[in-house]
Amino acid sequence: MWRVYCTDCGEAVLLDCSQLTSVVNLEPGVIAVEMRCTRGHPIPVLTGHTIGEQAWTQRS
Hints:
The protein contains one helix and five strands. It has one helix at residues 53-57; strands at 2-6, 11-15, 20-27, 30-36, 42-47. A three-stranded antiparallel β-sheet has the order 3-4-5, with no helix packed on it. A two-stranded antiparallel ribbon has the order 1-2.
């Protein structure tokens, strides 16, 4: 399960793997993940080794 922030809903949501819509390795150390909140809004997330804290501070 993942806790992510949905900008359309304006709140953090808890999602499981059924809301995961895509995972793409953009380059070594950078992964793009797209999820859908329980209301169906897309939630793009950049993650991976080279993203570090930068990816998580935007959702605080």
